[in-house]
Specification:
This protein has about 575 residues and is an alpha+beta fold. The protein has an eight-stranded mixed beta sheet, sandwiched between helices. Strands 1-2-3-5-4 form a five-stranded mixed beta sheet, with helices on one face. It has a five-stranded antiparallel beta sheet with strand order 13-14-17-15-16. It has helices at about 30-40, 100-105, 105-110, 110-135, 175-185, 220-240, 255-260, 280, 285-295, 310-325, 360-370, 385-400, 480-490, 495-510, 520-530, 560-565, and strands spanning about 5, 10-15, 20-25, 45-55, 70-80, 140, 155-160, 165-170, 190-195, 210-215, 245, 250-255, 275, 300-305, 330-335, 350, 375-380, 410, 410-415, 420-425, 430, 460-465, 470-475, 515-520. It contains 16 helices and 24 strands. The two termini are about 50 Å apart. Helices cover about 30% and strands about 25% of the residues. The structure holds aspartic acid.
Length: about 575
């Protein structure tokens, strides 16, 4: 029961099920017994009603409700179960805080919005299954109790009772298993796979999450991207036809995406592209620019169209915002007047204090960056990596602030050609940008013996959408010698390689086909399609930011006997 309204002489009850609401009318004339029972009914009670479906009288029609033209005229009602008063109203605009909703998740899930999310998630998974089945993929389950397989996160460990002191790891992904299935001759594999990563949680992360994991033999990168694009476009057009889809999905090389957007997962629903102006900055006397360039840094920025009217105090506030994003500082040029840079005169250019340059310089800067009268140029200086991070936060900020983001548009793109390795500053060693099974790009293998490891391109790709990464994948290594070499670069010694990866290296020696795949995250995809605020809204039983399940109260201590069985002791 959703609600009851007593209209003196008639009682109206809104009855709710997964599909929506229907109005039930109890009248003492039709059935005095049913009417008396109806007087006791309360929200969330479970009742059984029989009666006649009839058209509502014109004055009580409700066109906003799908069933608003009819009602059930009740002649019998049975109470199947009463209910306590719920701790919050079961309604879409729920006021309760999330902790309470998660504690009573079974009530929270009764809200129509949550039911819609669950239904959409089911439809997404069903679409994926049908799509891949039609293309010759086999759905194959892989074990959850396995050995650690690196995806760059910490493992969840499960102690073994039968082999005391030994542990299983929960899979961070079925990566090695799907590659082994390619060696097994499966050719086309997929799985709706649960993955486990013991990471510090961020808003859009869960310790366990669901991926569509897929792998194909004898493919090139473009085969995997084509398939993924077809899957996503078909799915979006069928399941969320109101969304605007930008087709075909652009393929943007990594270097290009970083240069233009400062991020490898930019929101492409708006422009605000960046320009490197290190050369021009080097012509100034500005200390900030010059010392940055001297230390090998860059000066880069973007144009905020029509924002040249900012006052000095607006600019100080904006610099404050930039600092909140971590930026060391921000410089600017405000363009007054109208027209192209050549139409503008000295007084039209308002430069950051300290950035004193003749008008020709400002004109060239504006031309290089595509700014004209009325625009604001935002500039940042520092090490390339940092500048990109800061600027990309500022770009998102302006995208939002200038109203450039259309909530109904899905702007997908593939980012390709990621670097094979990245330098891990904390541990002073090379790490895989994607994972160690990723193949170097064609013709780059010989560079593995050189000293520019950071400059080696790989065959890894991401699918991004509206500022999120939705999928990662790569063409893999399928030869033992090459795979061993990569492990060596990553700092594993012979014994470690044998102990951790001996099985897959050995498999590569028994006729492993070239192969590649991708793993689209399901949680984030459904969040975007549902227009939900958080991935927790599209997962039936999610965990909090601190990894707690508030409904079950886990994680929790276990019995001393359980620990004894496992030969474990908790250190104080
Ligand atoms: N296993 C990878 C991941 O989970 C995806 C892939 O390479 O297919 O990120």
């Amino acid at each position: 029961m959703d609600s009851r309204r007593d209209h003196g002489g008639v009682i109206f009850v809104d009855l709710r099920d997964r599909s929506g609401l229907v109005q039930v009318v109890f009248s003492p004339e039709l059935s005095p017994d049913a009417y008396r029972t109806a007087e006791q009914l309360r929200s969330e009670w479970v009742i059984q009603v029989s009666g006649t479906v009839r058209r509502r009288p014109p004055e009580s029609e409700n066109p906003t409700l799908p069933t608003g033209l009819v009602e059930v005229f009740a002649d019998e009602v049975t109470v199947l179960n009463a209910a306590l008063t719920p701790p919050f109203y079961i309604e879409d605009d729920v006021k309760a805080d999330e902790a309470l909703r998660l504690r009573y998740r079974y009530l929270d899930l009764r809200r129509p919005k949550m039911q819609r999310n669950l239904i959409l998630r089911h439809q997404v998974v069903k679409y994926i299954r049908d799509f891949l089945d039609a293309r010759g993929f086999l759905e194959i389950e892989t074990p959850i109790l396995i050995k650690s397989t690196p995806e760059g996160a910490r493992d969840y460990l499960v102690p073994s009772r039968l082999q005391r002191g030994s542990f299983y790891a929960l899979p961070q992904s079925p990566q090695q298993l799907k590659q082994l299935l390619m060696v097994s001759g499966v050719e086309r594999y997929f799985q709706i796979a649960r993955c486990f990563r013991d990471e510090d949680l961020r808003a859009d992360r869960q310790p366990e999450f669901t991926q569509l994991d897929l792998e194909m033999s004898f493919v090139e990168q473009e085969d995997v991207l084509q398939l993924t694009e077809e899957l996503y476009t078909g799915m979006v057009e069928k399941l969320t036809p109101d969304k605007k889809l930008v087709k075909p999905f652009p393929r943007i090389p990594y270097d290009d995406v970083m240069a233009r957007y400062g991020s490898d997962k930019p929101d492409l629903r708006f422009g605000l592209e960046m320009t490197d102006v290190t050369d021009l900055a080097g012509e100034t006397e500005f200390r900030v620019f010059l010392s940055t360039i001297e230390q090998g840094g860059i000066v880069k920025g973007f144009v905020a169209p029509g924002q040249g009217h900012y006052t000095g105090s607006d600019m100080r506030r904006l610099e404050e915002t930039a600092r909140e994003f971590g930026a060391a500082g921000m410089s600017h040029v405000r363009l007054q007047g109208e027209g192209s840079p050549s139409d503008l005169v000295d007084e039209h250019f308002l430069l950051s204090p300290g950035l004193r340059m003749p008008v020709e310089w400002s004109r060239r800067l504006a031309e290089t960056m595509g700014a004209s009268g009325g625009d604001l140029i935002v500039l940042m200086a520092g090490p390339a990596r940092r500048v990109n991070q800061w600027l990309s936060s500022m770009r998102d900020y302006f995208g939002e602030r200038l109203g450039l983001i259309d909530d109904d548009t899905l702007s997908f793109a593939f980012v390709t050609g990621f670097p094979l390795f990245e330098w891990d500053e904390n541990n002073n060693r090379w790490d895989s940008s994607h994972h160690p099974f990723t193949s170097p790009a064609d013709g780059k293998e010989s560079k593995l013996d050189g000293d520019d490891l950071g400059g080696i391109e790989s065959k890894a790709y991401d699918l991004i959408c509206n500022g999120s990464e939705l999928a990662s994948g790569s063409i893999r290594i399928h030869r033992r010698d090459l795979q061993e070499k990569i492990f060596g670069i990553l700092g594993y010694n012979r014994e470690q390689v044998e102990e951790r990866f001996g099985h897959i290296l050995e498999a590569f020696e028994y006729g492993a086909p070239p192969h590649g795949g991708i793993a689209p995250g399901i949680d984030r995809l459904v969040t975007i399609l549902a227009g939900a605020e958080s991935i927790r809204d599209v997962i039936a039983f999610p965990k909090t930011q601190s990894g707690t399940d508030l409904l079950f109260g886990s994680p929790s201590p276990v019995d001393a006997a359980q620990l004894r069985d496992l030969a474990l002791r908790i250190a104080e």
